[in-house]
Amino acid sequence: MIIAVDGPAASGKGTIAKALGRHYGLPVLDTGLLYRAVGLSVLKAGGDPDHEADALAAAGFDDAILVDPALRSEAVGSLASRVSVHQSVRDALIARQRDFATQPGGAILDGRDIGTVIAPDADAKIFVTASVHVRAERRYKDALSHGGHPDMDSLIADIQARDTRDMSRDHAPLKVAQGADLLDTSDLTIDAAVQRAVALVDAQLEGRSRS
To answer: Where do the Cytidylate kinase domain residues begin and end (predicted)?
Structure first.
């Protein structure tokens, strides 16, 4: 069983994917970490994330970097969005993601192109979203909890810029996959969002079994 969870930054898709993993007993891959790893690798190498050759060279990163705390920073998140526009980088990471998706027993993947490119035949697909201001507030609270001093206007501008890059890129743009259910978490608690996600997945799985 493969479950695809897509959506923009700070929509709650990562939290929902992990909860679905616990509920269904499936491994979870945050595919955004792979692009963050490329972005961080470019940074460490002194390269330019907007230069395709530099980004592609960084796509061969050592898996050890996936546990680097720096991957979770806002700065690296922005770098991930910039390197992800390069088709060669996306191609280099597709095999990793599909291998994870097709492992025995199934898996859950969260990202921006899971239901459209990585696993278009997934058994269940959810597109998680939320308003820009709600997503910025989540980033703001998260930064405060980690001792940061965030600026709300900057957070909103960054999210809007990342949305624009993700939705307008030529290759695998962020969009609702065919057959995906939309889940807006703007006015939902975490528990309510997870419950809704489970209900949507169960309904899709039941529909497939009937067909």
So the answer is: 3-201
Q: Is 14 marked within a binding site?
A: yes
Which tens digits make up the pLDDT trace of 58-99?
Answer: 999 998 999 999 998 888 989 999 999 999 999 999 999 999
**Is 198 in contact with 16 (CB distance < 8 Å)?**
no
Q: Does the annotation list 13 as a binding residue?
A: yes
pLDDT of 22-40, one tens digit each? 999 999 999 999 999 999 9
**Is 115 known to sit in a ligand binding site?**
no
Establish whether 25 is an annotated binding residue: no
Q: Is 106 annotated as a binding residue?
A: no
Residues 135 and 166 in one domain: yes
Judgement on whether residues 68 and 17 belong to the same structural domain of the protein = no
The residue out of 61, 85, 102 marking a domain boundary is 102
Q: Read off the pTM.
A: 0.90
88 in a known ligand binding site: no
Distances (CA, A) of 11 to 22, 143, 202: 19, 16, 21
Query: 7: annotated binding-site residue?
Result: yes
Q: What is the distance of C-alpha 107 from the center of its chain?
A: 15
60 assigned to a ligand binding site: no
Indicate the SS3 state at residue 165: helix
175 annotated to a ligand binding site: no
